[in-house]
Write a structure and sequence with these properties.
With 602 residues, the chain is α/β, with parallel strands linked by helices. It is 29% helix and 21% strand. It has 3 domains: 214 residues, Phosphoenolpyruvate Carboxykinase, domain 1; 274 residues, Alpha-Beta Complex (Phosphoenolpyruvate Carboxykinase, domain 3); 78 residues, Beta Complex (Phosphoenolpyruvate Carboxykinase, domain 2), CATH 2.170.8. The chain contains 17 helices and 31 strands. β20 and β21 form a beta hairpin. Bound molecules: guanosine-5'-diphosphate (GDP), 2-phosphoglycolic acid (PGA) and manganese (II) ion (MN) (2 copies). The site of one manganese (II) ion has 3 residues, from loops. This is Phosphoenolpyruvate carboxykinase [GTP].
C-alpha cells in the first residue's frame, strides 16, 4: 500500500500533468500566440517525467500511432510506421530564410522571411483543430554547459514528443537552464495532412526560429537535431566563435589508460554511428572505444588552447538495416529497451526485423508499409532508411564524459565519404588549411537518408551540405578563422571505408577493423607513427599500420585500397571545381591555393 504521503504526491502529479509548468513570461506569451494561430483543442505542457511518459505512450498506443512490442523481449519498446511518403529528410523542402539570398548561399534553398512566414502561418492556421498541441522544452547539451542551448518545440505529433524525450534532455531541466532569459529556440511543428506538396522545413536563423510542417520524419520533425543543432547551430557558431558539425565523437582508451578523443564527419548513412560504437578486434587487447556522440558535435576552443567538443544529443537515431551483433554490438545492446523502432518489419510475435539482422528472416511478417511479407517477397521488409531512437544511457560503452559540461578535447578530426573509387582508405592532411580543403572538397555517394537519387557522387563539404545554415563560402572561411582561435588544433584526416575492387568487393573489411586506421590516426596525433608523403597527404608508413590478426587480408590489398589513380584524380578535380564555381564569389582564396598546390603535386 502507498503511504498517504506517496498517494498525495501521485495525486498532485496527476493534477499538474499537462498544465503550464513555467513562469517564464516570454515562453507563455509565445505559446499562447502560437496556440491562437494553430487553434488546438488543448495545450499539453510536457515536464519530462516518467508518469507523463506512461500517459502519452498509452495514448499513442490507443490511437494506433505506436504498437507495443513484445515486452518480454523488448521491454519499453514500441513500433511506428510512417506515412510511406515520409521516410527521409527532404532537401528540396528545406529552406534557410535570411534577409538576403547571399546569407543562405547557393547550396541552400532560400526564401525571404516575410514571404515564408506568410505561407507557413497560412498553413498552420487552424491546423490543430481537434488535436492537442504539446509544448516540448528541451536542452541541446548537458545541463550547465556554456555550449548548451534551450529549445521549445510545439508539436501536434505524440510520436515527435516521445522521440524528443529520447533524443534530447527534455522537460523541466530546460526551464531550469533557461531561467528568465528569452534566448530559446522557437520551434513550431505541425503535421498537417503529411502531404509532400505541403511539406516545408524552414529556418529563420535571425529570429532563432524553426517552422516545420507536413512531415514526422526524424530529421524534419525532431527540431533539436538537424534544424537546431546543425542549421541554426552553425549560424550561431559563426556569430559566437564555435563550430556546429555533423560529427560523431569517440574516445580511444589505450591499455595503459591513455584517452584520446576524435571527431569524425561522414555524410548521413556513411558510418558515423558504427564508428562511434566500434569494438576493437581481439588483436587490440586492452583497447576500448567510448561513445561520446554519434551524429553531432558542438566544438569550442577551451581555456587550455585545445578544441573541446560536446554531444548536444541524449539519444541515437540510427540506421536499422545492417545493424547486427557482429557489425555493431553496442547499438544492438542499446536498442533492447526503451526504444522506438520506425519503418522496420513487424513479426507475428510482436518482435522487429530488418535486412541484415542476425539470424534467418521470419517466415512471415508485416513489412514497413504493413503489407504481408515473406522471404520470397521482392520488396525489402524494412525501409532502407528505417531507424531506431534509443536513449544513449543504454549504450554499455557510453563515455562518462558525455554528460560533462566542459566536453572532451579533440585530437583528430576525420572526414570521410562513401566512395567506390578514387579515395584511399586513409591519409592525413599536411596542416589545418589543407585539412579544411580536404573537408571542403569531400564527395560521397547519395544514400537513403535523404529523398533523391541513390549512389550518385555529390560534393558534400564536411558532410554539412544539407545542414549548413548559411553561405557555404562563409562556412569555409569560419573553419579557416577558427585556426587562429585554437592554439593546439586537432590533426585532420580523410578516410574511405567503401572503396571497391573491380569485382565490386569492398577493399577494406570495415566496422571493428576500422580500429586499425584509428590506431594509426591516434599514433600520428601523439607523434608515434611514421608516414609517407603522397600528393594527397601523409599515408601510413610500412611499419606503422597494424594488420596483425586480420586473417586473409594481405598488404597487397591494403596498397590497392591506398592507390592514388591519377586518371581518377583528374576527374575528381573537375568535380570539385563544380562546387567551387558555384561558391566562387565567397570562396576563400586559401581554397583556390590549396587546389593549385594539389594539382602541382599530382
Ligand atoms: P550514419 O548514418 O553515418 O550514422 O551511418 P551508420 O553507422 O548508421 O551506417 C550506415 C550504413 O553503412 C549501414 O548500413 C552500415 O552497415 C554501413 N557501414 C557502417 N560502417 C561501415 C564500414 O566500415 N564498412 C562498410 N562496408 N559499411 C559500413
Ligand atoms: P545519420 O542521421 O547521419 O545518422 O544518418 C540522420 C540524418 O543525417 O538524416
Ligand atoms: Mn546525421
Ligand atoms: Mn547515425
Amino acid at each position: 500500500l502507498l503511504t498517504p504521503n506517496e498517494m498525495g504526491n501521485i495525486m498532485e502529479a496527476n493534477e499538474k500533468m499537462g498544465k503550464c509548468n513555467t513562469s517564464n513570461r516570454t515562453i507563455i506569451a509565445w505559446v499562447e500566440e502560437q496556440a491562437k494561430l494553430c487553434q488546438p483543442d488543448e495545450i499539453f505542457w510536457c515536464d519530462g517525467s516518467e508518469s507523463e511518459k506512461v500517459l502519452l505512450t498509452a495514448e499513442a498506443v490507443d490511437k494506433g500511432i505506436l504498437i507495443k512490442l513484445n515486452q518480454e523481449k523488448l521491454p519499453g519498446c514500441y513500433y511506428h510506421r510512417s506515412n510511406p511518403n515520409d521516410v527521409a529528410r527532404v532537401e528540396q523542402c528545406t529552406y534557410i530564410c535570411t534577409e538576403t539570398r547571399d546569407e543562405a548561399g547557393p547550396t541552400n534553398n532560400w526564401a525571404a522571411p516575410k514571404e515564408m512566414y506568410q505561407k507557413l502561418l497560412g498553413l498552420a492556421r487552424g491546423s490543430m483543430h481537434g488535436r492537442t498541441m504539446y509544448v516540448v522544452p528541451y536542452l541541446m547539451g548537458p545541463l550547465g554547459s556554456p555550449l548548451t542551448k534551450v529549445g521549445i518545440e510545439l508539436t501536434d505529433s505524440i510520436y515527435v514528443v516521445l522521440s524528443m524525450r529520447i533524443m534530447a534532455r527534455m522537460g523541466d531541466v530546460a526551464y531550469k537552464h533557461l531561467g528568465n532569459r528569452d534566448d530559446f529556440n522557437r520551434g513550431l511543428h505541425c503535421m498537417l495532412d503529411v502531404n509532400p506538396e505541403r511539406r516545408y522545413i524552414c529556418h529563420f536563423p535571425q529570429d532563432n526560429t524553426i517552422i516545420s510542417v507536413g512531415s514526422a520524419y526524424g530529421g524534419n520533425a525532431l527540431l533539436g537535431k538537424k534544424c537546431l543543432a546543425l542549421r541554426i547551430g552553425s549560424y550561431l557558431g559563426r556569430k559566437e566563435g564555435w563550430m556546429a558539425e555533423h560529427m560523431l565523437i569517440l574516445g580511444v582508451e589505450s591499455p595503459t589508460g591513455e584517452k584520446t578523443y576524435v571527431a569524425a564527419a561522414f555524410p548521413s548513412a556513411c558510418g558515423k554511428t558504427n564508428f562511434a560504437m566500434m569494438i576493437p578486434p581481439a588483436h587490440f587487447k586492452g583497447w576500448k572505444i567510448w561513445t561520446v556522440g554519434d551524429d553531432i558535435a558542438w566544438m569550442k576552443p577551451g581555456p587550455d588552447g585545445r578544441l573541446y567538443a560536446i554531444n548536444p544529443e541524449a539519444g541515437y537515431f540510427g540506421v536499422m538495416p545492417g545493424t547486427n551483433y557482429k557489425s555493431n554490438l553496442n547499438a544492438m545492446k542499446s536498442i533492447q529497451k526503451d526504444t522506438i523502432y520506425t519503418n522496420v518489419a513487424l513479426t507475428p510475435d510482436l518482435d522487429v526485423w530488418w535486412e541484415g539482422k542476425d539470424g534467418p528472416p521470419p517466415k512471415e511478417c508485416l513489412d514497413w508499409r504493413g503489407n504481408k511479407w515473406t522471404p520470397e517477397s521482392k520488396e525489402k521488409a524494412a525501409h532502407p532508411n528505417s531507424r531506431f531512437a534509443a536513449p544513449m544511457i543504454n549504450n554499455p560503452m557510453l563515455a562518462p564524459e558525455a554528460n560533462d559540461p566542459s566536453g572532451v578535447p579533440i585530437s583528430a578530426i576525420i572526414f570521410g565519404g562513401r566512395r567506390a573509387d578514387t579515395m584511399p582508405l586513409v591519409f592525413q592532411a599536411f596542416n589545418w588549411i589543407h585539412g579544411v580543403y580536404v573537408g571542403a572538397t569531400m564527395g560521397s555517394e547519395m544514400t537513403a537518408a535523404a529523398a533523391g537519387t541513390l549512389g550518385q557522387v555529390r560534393r558534400d563539404p564536411m558532410a554539412m551540405l544539407p545542414f549548413c545554415g548559411y553561405n557555404m563560402g562563409y562556412y569555409f572561411h569560419h573553419w579557416i578563422i577558427m585556426r587562429k582561435l585554437i592554439k593546439y588544433p586537432p590533426r585532420i584526416f580523410h578516410v574511405n571505408w567503401f572503396r571497391k575492387d573491380a569485382n565490386g568487393e569492398f577493399l577494406w573489411p570495415g566496422f571493428g577493423e576500422n580500429m586499425r586506421v584509428l590506431k594509426w590516426i591516434v599514433d600520428r596525433c601523439k607523434g608515434r607513427a611514421n608516414a609517407n608523403e603522397t600528393p594527397l597527404g601523409w599515408v601510413p608508413g610500412p611499419e606503422s599500420f597494424d594488420l596483425g590478426g586480420l586473417e586473409g587480408y594481405t598488404p597487397e590489398k591494403l596498397s590497392q585500397a591506398q592507390t592514388i589513380n591519377y586518371e581518377d584524380w583528374r576527374r575528381e578535380l573537375l568535380q570539385q571545381d563544380e562546387l567551387f564555381m558555384k561558391l566562387y564569389s565567397n570562396l576563400p582564396k586559401e581554397m583556390i591555393f590549396q587546389r593549385e598546390l594539389l594539382v602541382s603535386r599530382l
